Amino acid sequence: MxxxxxxxxxxxxxxxVNYSIIKQAFTEIPPQPFNAMxxxxxxxxxxxxxxxxxxxxxxxxxMSSVFFTPQPLTRADEWGLLWLGIVGHLGYQFCFVGGVxxxxxxxxxxxxxxxxxxxxxxxxxxxxxRIAPLHWxxxxxxxxxxxxxxxxxxxxxxxxxTGDLLIMISVGCWAAYTIxxxxxxxxxxxxxxxxMTMAIGGVPYVALTFPQFLDLDWSSVSAFTWIxxxxxxxxALNVAYLxxxxxxxxxxxxxxxxxxxxxxLVAMSFAAVWLGEPLSSIKLIGATAVLTGVLLTRLGRKPxxxxxxx
Length: 310
Description:
With 310 residues, the protein is an all-alpha fold. It has one domain (3-55, 65-298). It is built from 12 helices and no strands. The longest helix has 30 residues, at 31-60.
């Protein structure tokens, strides 16, 4: 396993565990204000890291492209950062959290499981990555496994229709963000692109959710919830997002996105320990299918990158 694969596995673990942690925290702080505070904290950490790497880049002489690149920021780059911040952080985060609050876990996980397919199809249509039949097969097997794991009993429409639609919109936002950022990451570091877009999207997010802060009883929030908020921001947003876009930079958007198929499996396993949710044989069969699909998408695949001239 290459280093980037190991980092992406770490990302999967962080995001999978994060699901149960924030689910428990939502019992004390509503989802949108909780998420707004996460974005503020994570954005502050990213901006501080960007400033630090830029100040040290001249003295060190060389630095990994994950943290710093000397390319100048063009007007096109500025517009790219703006729309990615709005779509990838304001749009995605708002719709995802709002959708989870309005639909069942099975529905949300099943819909989000289609994200790698959305990214792969969009990448192929845009000519960013070539997807071979074997890799399409792997994607189909992974999606089938996700359905086996979380799709049993999932129902669309009715009382969950609004939440289902919000989750579908969040999938589109994430796919657009992942593919759109691949062009910027060819010129600028994942740290810079992720940090700047998160800060740009976080400002309107906080403005939209600010009225909800006024209705909260802050004295009733436990120490565990505050710790959960800080760790969720630092690990799920700072560390995991940086790993995600390092993967996009190194091995392409479609291959990186396939690792998100593993997130429901980790979330399911951790929930069995943390929340006491049972693990059935049908879920283990689905997990095997997902892992097989991910393996197939890696066979014979060469990294693709957007030329820096673009």
